[in-house]
């Protein structure tokens, strides 16, 4: 939400009904005294008849009424529901979709679409990234695979092994600090901060914001670490660009957006 939205940017977003701008400003139509979301499906008024205001409260204070078609007041509620759901998905026992939607008082199908539209990923994919983070932490803490499965809250080993494929190494190797593994790493700038990407010969192993080589060393103390070659750096840059191109609600809290971004990175094919 910006009080200083550039009018040309706002007009462009309004003109093409760009949903990613919903919640960042509202469009007040002087001729009808109604305010809308940027994505409202209604016919576009002439530009000289609209004003771009920071939010619904500002529009109401200026005497405008909410559009009954696009329901601009629902944007804040939608965002709050997605943030609340993200917290549940990051917890020890991520609820299935029906329970998740019920917890934030939405219908399951509608909430699934809403979550995907705002974060760029599904609730299940988001939950998987949170679980995979716990897998590595549990492996490092437990020192062996069987103990880690239960420490990470898994009822069955099969799901644990499925999530552990993201490590780019066997769970046993991760539990022993990456012994016998070589990690090739690089860093890329993103709109969410500097990102470290590391891969083994099996595939991507780690995507971590605000990390540098010493942090990678702490995560895998027994592994060999080497700077990635030009090919790896190019693949990393392509991967980051693909994830950055997915439309998301940029007003979501940064921690939620970072998990969603790493989820998008994991969704891409491995470097092989
Ligand atoms: Zn509208």
TrEMBL record:
Entry EC number(s): 2.1.1.63
BP-aspect Gene Ontology terms: DNA repair; methylation
Record GO terms (molecular function): DNA-binding transcription factor activity; methylated-DNA-[protein]-cysteine S-methyltransferase activity; sequence-specific DNA binding; zinc ion binding
Boundaries of every HTH araC/xylS-type domain copy: 97-160
Cofactor(s), by name: Zn(2+)
InterPro entries: Ada-like_dom_sf, Ada_DNA_repair_Zn-bd, Homeodomain-like_sf, HTH_AraC, MGMT_N_sf
The UniProt record lists the keyword Glycoprotein: no
Keywords: Activator, Methyltransferase, Transcription, Transcription regulation, Transferase
The protein's name in its UniProt record: AraC family transcriptional regulator of adaptative response/methylated-DNA-[protein]-cysteine methyltransferase
Organism (species): Sphingomonas endophytica
